Amino acid sequence: MTGPDYEVRQGVREDAGAIAAMYQETWPLFWETGDGVCGQLDVLDAIGGQALIATRGGEVVGHCEFIPTREPPPYGCWGYLEALEVHRRFYRRGIGTALVREAVRRCAAFGCARFGTSPDDERSEGLYRKVGMVNVERRLVTKFELHGEIPEPDVDAVEGLPRNDRPWEEFLHVLGRLHCASYWWSRMFCEGEERSARAFADRVVGGAGAAVVFCNEGWLHVLLPPDRAADRALLQDAVAYGARRLRALGGDGFHTLMPLHLADAVRVVPGIYPSESHFDCHMWMPL
After folding, report:
1. Residues 95-132, buried b or exposed e (16+ Cβ, 10 A)?
2. Would you call 179 exposed, middle or buried from its count of C-beta atoms within 10 A (0-12, 13-18, 19+)?
3. What is the C-alpha separation between 91 and 138, in angstroms, rounded?
4. Minimal CB count within 10 Å: which of 110, 137, 208, 244?
5. 209-216 and 157-160 as β-strands: parallel, antiparallel, unpaired?
6. What is the pLDDT of residues 200-212, one digit of tens each?
7. Residue 111 vs residues 83, 98, 181: alpha-carbon distances, Å
């Protein structure tokens, strides 16, 4: 795919240095080295995602990543835009729009029925609306601190889950899904990166039902069976389990992202106290 003065194509490991060079000029805190980009490409490859780049005269001037993934309804087979960046010297040339449209085209070719992302700011939100993402779901990102007694959840069995498990295909990711479930899961098991001492992934079974609880990079995630996705008691048991496990590992808090209809159920779990909150939105379009 080509534009007036650029070409859009899939990014490969040989492009890692050039991608890192763009980020060093545009967003220095993100992917400072080619090795870091290669690690990210490995994560994408493990879950079937791809990176796209826009090049001009051999220089990388734009970059995005997308992940086709499969989850229970209402998501099903869908595509997620994980990253989008354009070099500031090349704003307003249609590069970001071209990258997103190519990601949408490829996800549709993979059989995805919808495509979505979480915008970082108003500028990117406008771009996503331009390509057709007009469905918006508001969510609440909250940092919780751990204080006092956290109730012991009704748990009969706990099973640690390995990296090759794919719980998001069976369970619905109801808490913490700032990115699609497969990306969060794979980030926890990144090759070449030191895993946090407070990272874990467990399937828990108790009187309230079964759930998957995992934590990485300070984020707590809960996956519930699709037919129990709004079960407040099961969600509260899962959050209590995760908070107690984090405390046992030396943690003093966590971040999570909550759909608004579940926020009240999470906030009333004893022993966890919100200290910061802000709204986030997920935008999507049917394919």
Report:
1. bbebbbbbbbebbeebebebbbbbbeeeebbebbeebb
2. buried
3. 28
4. 137
5. unpaired
6. 999 999 988 999 9
7. 21, 20, 18
Q: Does domain 139-281 have CATH number 1.25.40?
A: no
The residue with tokens 């992917």 is: 31
- CA 99, CA 113: separation in Å to the nearest integer? 19
182 within 8 A of 193, measured Cβ to Cβ: no
* Bridge pairing between strands 77-86 and 114-117: parallel
Domain with CATH 3.40.630.30 in the chain: 7-133
CA 272 – CA 254 distance, rounded (Å): 9
What digits encode the pLDDT tens for the residues 65-77? 999 999 999 899 9
Q: Do 26 and 117 meet the contact criterion of CB atoms below 8 Å apart?
A: no
What is the pTM (predicted TM-score) of this model?
Answer: 0.90
Q: Are 177 and 76 in contact (CB under 8 A)?
A: no
Contacts of 115 (CB under 8 A, 6+ apart): 78, 79, 80, 81, 103, 104, 107, 108, 133, 284, 285, 287
Tell me which fold the domain 7-133 belongs to: Aminopeptidase (3.40.630)
